[in-house]
Known about the structure:
Elements: H1 30-41, H2 51-54, H3 72-77, H4 85-88, H5 90-113, H6 115-139, H7 142-162, H8 165-171, H9 176-205, H10 213-234, H11 264-267, H12 271-292, H13 294-302, H14 319-354, H15 356-380, H16 383-412, H17 417-424, H18 426-448, H19 458-476, H20 489-494, H21 514-539
Amino acid sequence: MTTDSGGARAPRLLDRERIIAGPGYNRWLVPPAALAIHLCIGMAYGFSVFWLPLSKALGGAKSIACPAGSGLIEALFTTSCDWKVSDLTIIYTLFFVVLGSTAAIGGGWLERAGPRKAGFVAACCWCGGMLVSAFGAYSHQLWMMWLGSGVIGGIGLGLGYISPVSTLIKWFPDRRGMATGMAIMGFGGGAMIGSPLANLLMTHFKTATSVGVWQTLVVLAVGYFVFMMGGAFGYRIPRPGWAPQGWTPKASSGTMIAAGSVHLRDAHKTPQFWLIWAVLCLNVSAGIGVLALASPMLQEIFGGALIGAPGVAFTALDETQLKATAAIAAGFTGLLSLFNIAGRFFWASTSDLIGRKATYFCFFGLGIVLYACAPWTAHLGSKALFVASFCVILSMYGGGFATVPAYLADIFGGQFVGAIHGRLLTAWSTAGVIGPVVVSNIREAQIAAGVPRALVYDRTMYILAAFLVAGLVCNALVRPVAAKWQMSAEDVAALQPAVPAADAPATDDRAGLQAKVLLAWLAVGIPVAWGVWTTLKSAFVLFR
């Protein structure tokens, strides 16, 4: 063990004390480091590109069906028949269940260990899990796919997702929403880059005997590992006492911005934690319910009108027409993805101006109107109005994710906000079950009852609007945390990393390193620009 001259252990490469920023450090280097990690783990949203190729991994052009009576247990170990898509989508469920659990359990460790160590472990788990999945695809072992990407990768997702939150909020106390919005925007944008890249790689590696998935996973794992390590080692934390030049805290008695911090062990004991938990859960349940069925919803509601055949119902379309409507629906989902991403930055930045509580009032108030009016726009036959409504809805879905870390920092203070945010993400795991289940079950019940396909989503939209009414009430009940829950100044000081006494806190975040800042932003900006352009090209077909 390495020690300094005084006998204390010198900080190691990944330790929190090792990444304390020096005087003159430019805080704008931190957001691209966070984006580098979030853009990689955001590929979790894009894993569906592998489902169809993997379902034909053995059969090639056509899947080899398993013997009648085969169940999920047989599918986990079989090497003689192809997997069903439903067996593979369990990976997607595992992603977000393990993400929420890891974020909730690992948040406290992250606050002690620092963002670099958390980012390092996240990279090892996410990319290592992809390598395990690659071997599972190569050897045709479904259990390895589940273990690799779903469990090991899910742990990387959880740690990677929350790794920058506390750090960004400490670097940007004056722009909390904007800072976390930039990072979490990256998670939404990961699939926008990863999905088309994976398609290109699979096309390149595809042969007569291979669908190209395992090779693609290996290449992505290596590339993501390099990118995520760049992000992890790019993290820095501010020195105790640091503040942006010319900025002073606005907290005062009775405001929605806390003057102190609440300890992690006490946050869940307050009503505010559970009210914000419900606010996030209800907002995400409504949004993710739409995302789950965006493609079939557009096709079934508008049918032949999408391809210049108004009046032709979806069920009356032939195979060629169905393929054409599916291509247009893919453009619709791409457009929703862009608004999901843009909304994360727009709404989180807006919350810096109008406040977090007011921003969530916008989400719920505007969302109630848009969900309730969606059936009307559909019956009106206005494709443009229908698409525009859902683009705004998805912007608020993404905005809810990006705004909630700043909301927590306002209510509970910045000391444990990363760990508290980790625990709050169990609301996301819950919503990931509630939203799709509600929408899917109502749709199936309506179809079974003989309701025309163009009308099966009416009741669904009204129920999702009711979710938002409940969220509106929960948000209205949020009040500042009682003073008894706030930590003393001495307790907060005891949690700060050790800083050499000779080093004064840096106060000028604008000094120096401008070329380095530009390069850091280009490193994440170029992939994002490519992903946006690729998505826009696929979305243009919607309006031809």
